[in-house]
Amino acid sequence: METIGRAIKILLFMMLLTGVAYPLLVTGFAGLVFPHRASGSIILADGKAMGAELVGQNFSDPRYFWPRPSATNYDAMPSGGSNLGPTSNDLKEMITKRREHLRATNDTVVEVPPDLLFASASGLDPDITPAAARYQVERIARARSLDQKAKTVIFRLIEEHIETPTFGLLGEPRVNVLRLNMALDSLVRNR
Prior knowledge:
- The protein is mainly α.
- Helices cover 49% and strands 8% of the residues.
- The longest helix has 32 residues, at 2-33.
């Protein structure tokens, strides 16, 4: 009986240590050192939450940059990929439909950047490659009735929003779709 009592005390101690004390310590440290990220990386505009910087959102309006496809329709609860492998006919059909749709809506014969065809593993990737952003400029300019000079400004806007690999090593150059679309709205509003 003494062994069971000791085991229960150890269990309760470990539950308090690893289930309460450690998470509080880590959360408090993160809040002090990385306050923006620890609070969800929410992007505000005029005091209104526009979205989270680290979670992809669906933009389907032709006037905006579109994100990577999502296997979960950008729902964070069941986030994940489709789990379809390279030999899957369903995946091939999905990619073919996406490619045809992008070529038709972007009115170009330029090869579609892969990140606009394939969903990310989480289905919530907030970034696209600079090539994927540039690919969409013609459609956006046409949908917003912008001239050639304005298109040049949009290309420059993309260049200004390119984030370099973390620590210069991790990842690839990328563009946050939400931030880019907010900058695009601001640019058009201020013209």
